[in-house]
Amino acid sequence: MRNVSAKRIKITMLTLSAFIVLAGLIYSLSENSIGEFRQTHRMNGLDFSITYVSPNQLAGQEVNMLQASFNEQQLDSLTVRYENSLCYDLIITPAGDESPYFGNIAALGASSEQGYTLRKYILNFKLQDYLGLIHKNVLLKPVLTEAEVVQGKDELKIRLVFPASVKDIDNSNYQIVFEDPFWDSGAVTFLQSN
């Protein structure tokens, strides 16, 4: 009996050690090199939230997506690959906890199947036409936009990636603008100022 208890303690200690290492990795992946940038605006019954995604977080997400084991050097090289761009997640959800709408948020307000088909086309291929980063009166368009309807959460997640030319705006004033083409919310503007 004593041998079994010692084994359980040893397994518990190993599990605890693995958890502490994992918690440290998660903490290091959540560090933000240009400061926390998270804002939410409520307009026309919807919440528009934007969050900066750091190079460390992007590398961690890629590791998780690939379900591969990476050593620290490989993780560092992934992080370096993402350092020449700015990445944000724009999340659109119904406003408030008790939403009258449940289902595919991208379909909200589409009056026909044809209208919904057009909306899907815009979300997948033309979304960069409705987004921009303004810095020193210069409008920069994202080089990549990726829209995903998150099933079960009633949210639309849009990943925005701005080019390497924005690297010099770290710790500077800029704004990200989403010209809402679907829900009559107008221009939703997120300001970053330091």
Describe the structure.
With 194 residues, the protein is an alpha+beta fold. It has a domain at 34-54 and 84-192: Immunoglobulin-like. It has four helices and nine strands. It has helices at 2-29, 55-66, 72-82, 113-126; strands spanning 38-43, 46-53, 86-94, 131-135, 138-140, 144-150, 155-162, 174-179, 187-192. The strands form two sheets. The chain has a five-stranded antiparallel beta sheet. Strands 5-4-8-9 form a four-stranded antiparallel beta sheet, with no helix packed on it. Strand 1 (38-43) and strand 2 form a beta hairpin. Helix 2 crosses helix 3 (72-82). The chain is globular and about 50 Å long. It starts with a helix and ends with a strand. Mean pLDDT is 74; it is low at 4-35.
Describe the structure in brief.
Helices cover 34% and strands 30% of the residues. It is α+β, with helices and mostly antiparallel strands and 194 residues long. The protein has a domain of 130 residues: Immunoglobulin-like (Sandwich).
